[in-house]
Design a protein that fits this description.
0% strand, mainly alpha
Length: 105
């Protein structure tokens, strides 16, 4: 062999490797599509909706629970339950209005 000639012939790319690389690219693409790219603002809106729902349910349930306990202890059934349920609804809506009036970042 002469010094200008390489010692070995260059190895051609194996068809199996290129096929594997192509399948990996397709799998990565499918996984990105399946997971979905996070979109700005959508996660914040989802959290805000969950918070509003929690305030509403919590206010009503909390008022009803406190009213029921007062009724059981004082024997004023169903008046304390109704009054505290009403207060719970008022507090829940007040909190929801506060949340909706906040300025977004």
């Amino acid at each position: 062999m002469a010094e200008s000639e390489p010692g070995q012939d260059p190895i051609e790319e194996d068809a199996r490797l290129s096929s594997l690389q192509q399948r990996l690219r397709q799998a990565h693409h499918k996984e990105k599509v399946r997971k979905g790219a996070p979109q700005d603002g959508h996660d914040d809106n989802y959290r805000l909706g969950n918070r509003v729902l929690a305030e509403l349910i919590g206010g009503i349930a909390g008022g009803a629970l406190v009213g029921w306990v007062i009724d059981r202890l004082a024997g004023t059934s169903p008046w304390a339950l109704l009054v505290m349920l009403f207060f719970g609804i008022i507090v829940a809506f007040r909190n929801i209005i506060r949340i909706s009036n906040r300025r977004s970042k």
